[in-house]
Amino acid sequence: MNILRFEIRNQLKTAAVWTVASVLIIIVFMRGVYPFFLEGYGEIKKIIASFPKEFAGALGLEMAVLFSFEGFYGFGSFYVFVFGAISAASLAISVFAREKRAKCLDFILTKPRSRRNIFAVKLLSVLLVLAAANIVYIAVSMLVYSLNGGKDGRFFLAACALFFTQLMFMSAGVFASVFMKRIRSVSGTAAAIGFGAFALTALSNILEDVYPDYFYAPLKYFDPSKLFMNGSFGAKYVFCALVIITVSLGASFFRYTKGDAQSV
Amino acid sequence: MNIIRRELKANLKPFVFWTIGLFILSFAGMTKYLGIGAEGVDLNAISDRFPRVILALIGMTDADTRKLAGFYAVIAYFATVCVSLYSISLGFNAAARETVDKTYEFLFTKPKKRSRILSAKLGAALIFITLFNILNCVFPLAASSVLGYKENIIREVALFCAAAYLVSLLFFSLSVLLSVVASNAEKGARRGNVLFVFAYIMGVVCDTFENPGALRLFSPLRYFTSAELLSGRFSAPYSALCVLLIAACTLLAFRFFERKDLTAV
Hints:
The complex is a heterodimer of chains A (about 260) and B (about 260). By secondary structure, chain A is an all-alpha fold. Chain A is built from 11 helices and no strands. The longest helix of chain A is centred in the N-terminal third of the chain and has 38 residues. The longest helix of chain B has about 35 residues. At the A-B interface, helix 1, helix 2 and helix 9 of A face helix 2, helix 3, helix 4, helix 5 and helix 9 of B.
């Protein structure tokens, strides 16, 4: 209980800032930008109609999705995802690398608690904070959606996509903190993970004509636009996400419970 | 000399990783250039109709992506983001690594002035930033010749890279200053990263307006805009501002570092 309380209390302020930021992004996008965006749609439809037929079909569908409320939510989500990925990773790193960074791993490991228990409680504290932040995010998303008169039942799943993405990056953060020899800066490491994922997404957007699969771009696994276009995130990507989460958490658990504690 | 050598060795691995990232960004980005568009399909006609906010988010305002130079401008923007983030991490490392690793007692009891030590560390970081910026210049040119594009963009690449160099040095000196001033290392790192996010958002806000005016002052990422660089202008007032800010931050960092209380975390 002590560890749980300590970790949650330490994360509370940062988590609150992140939650407010992500909620603000989605409100600005959906209430502020979307109406402007919609204005140009009429002309764009005309332009597409002037294209050759085989081209106009696919492109028209793509644009129809992008200009729908749900599709635009998917577009805006990407920016929330980048923020969310960095925040989840930094949360996990700050909790799991705390003792390593302070060079006092022996302090916590000599307490009358099994290492499994310590690992589990730390993980629980990260999960609780993430879940709380996402409940707020999902609630605001649903509110904005219903204010706009949306009825699609899949929207709830789309709003949950942030949580799924964050779970992956949390696992990556745990993995990094347990396996890296040194974590010099929590925010620096998290930003590097986030930027790496961002670069991979950019790469996959560029290569999608040649290789339609994007296994290497985890930020796109739970792309809400795909959900609205195809009806699902794609089983193979959900499977990939599960593999990433189980493998990195499993390996970290094993290392944390069995590995040698470094002395200073 | 020993310090510089040690610093160069310690920073080599991250340098390789960041270089790989920059390489992917430049090469993969350049392959996407379509030119005027096949079969009379002009995708740019669609993006022209997008509101400025959206274009600002993807860094495409004022860039005519029908021309190779304009297309490169979009990639150059993301490359600048990459270069800046790398510089921020280098700045933090130069100023705070010994504290984080708890090796400061070892280094700062050596018969060397603190200012000498800091300048050696900054010098080593500067070498990496310079190298990185040279690569930032080389990659797109190499990509363009490998991919066989006919248009000549040497002048644009040189201008954009010079701008990126100034901006990254600014972020570097800001990050050094913030890390030196902060009472604990993590605070300094966090402030550096938050500052960057702020600059990025301000950049998007700037782009949303046709004439951002004084707003540009708040976003180093907009000191040199694509529109200006593409037309061959390299803003003199903003370069002067950059140099001035860099000098001021570095000077202040040295002053604070001389008197800083080095304590465990």
